[in-house]
Specification:
Length: 327
């Protein structure tokens, strides 16, 4: 009898580490984690593979050996890094995702299971056209999906491919169960992102909590939607366990609060009066921020699978970030 497993790619990244902490408390869930880097709590899982999602040998072995019930495909190169390394980003973000879709389709053929895939997408799929809309307008899933960044283009392509494979299957009528959330920036109390553009918020918060000065690469009026990590993890768990018949879409926005850099500074200054914020604007990163919406509409997620953030801007600091901060 083949064992039933759950695969997490990009398992050493921010979402991966936090998701594994949650899953490690659930008995009998056999997690196979894949990442280029090992991380410290990998002993909580069934099997850790130090390797790449571009290594088809690794993926084929997994596909032959196990019944893969779920895949959390988190491995990606984020927006700022993708602009600097477009070829690498295309390989990881697009080819890597196609490899994951292929092992899931194979499961359908070999084991007769429809593998559930969780795919994190992003506000990077949007580009607000300032002639047609203000950055302050509420943006739903269906408008302004003409991304400027490579990362946004990769995410949008994979959203569309995953949706098509879920709805129509491939030429052999093999299918996947594709569930996707477009995340806003994520703020975690115990990890920092690498290579993203919304990174200014978590970086600023972590520096303030360590009594260090922070030099922001974006100006004080910069605004993006954010959530905190526990809400991100809850959203993933909720959409994955939702009855498929309730999911009217494959791709959903979620959000909680949209502070400007100045708003974040005021909150931090209140708690840490010594905190010093400086600015050294990175034109390219600022342009990316200016192309993403300030507010996204998450009503569809609220209606279909009961999404509701536990934390708003104030409670995020008071009840999550300050009490849980770890360097
Ligand atoms: N946090 C991501 C980035 O900045 C966007 O989803 O690249």
């Amino acid at each position: 009898m083949k064992e039933k497993v759950t695969i997490i790619t990009g398992s050493s990244g921010e979402i991966g580490q936090n998701l594994i902490s949650y899953f490690s408390k659930i008995k009998n869930k056999k997690i196979i984690a894949i990442d280029l880097e090992e991380f410290n709590n990998s002993n909580n899982i069934f099997h850790f593979i130090k390797g790449s999602i571009l290594d088809e040998k690794i993926l084929n072995e997994l596909s032959n050996k196990y019944i893969i019930e779920e895949i959390y495909h988190l491995a990606a190169i984020l927006s700022t890094k993708a602009e600097k390394n477009p070829e690498l980003a295309e390989k990881v973000n697009v080819k890597g995702t196609i490899n994951i879709f292929n092992i899931a389709l194979n499961q359908n053929l070999k084991n007769n299971v429809i593998t559930k895939i969780f795919f994190p997408s992003s506000i990077a799929v949007y580009k607000i056209d300032s002639k047609l809309s203000s950055k302050d307008n509420l943006i739903d899933e269906n408008t302004f999906c003409n991304p400027k960044t490579k990362y946004g283009q990769h995410k949008l392509f994979c959203e569309n491919l995953g949706t098509a494979l879920d709805k129509y299957g491939n030429e052999l009528n093999l299918k996947i169960d594709f569930r996707c959330i477009r995340f806003p920036g994520i703020i975690s109390a115990n990890t920092l992102p690498t290579g993203g553009t919304s990174d200014y918020a978590p970086e600023m918060i972590h520096n303030a909590l360590q009594q260090k000065t922070y030099t922001s690469f974006a100006d004080q009026n910069s605004c993006l939607p954010f959530i905190v990590m526990p809400d991100a993890i809850n959203s993933i768990l909720s959409i994955m366990k939702c009855d498929k018949s309730k999911l009217r879409k494959n791709v959903y926005n979620i959000t909680s609060f949209s502070p400007t850099i100045l708003d974040l500074y005021k909150i931090l200054k209140n708690q840490f009066p010594e905190f010093l914020l400086k600015y050294k604007i990175d034109r390219k990163r600022q342009e990316i921020i200016n192309s993403w919406p300030n507010f996204i509409d998450d009503n569809q997620a609220k209606k279909d699978w009961g999404w509701k953030p536990e934390f708003n801007l104030n409670s995020a600091f008071k009840n999550y970030i300050y009490p849980n901060f770890k360097k």
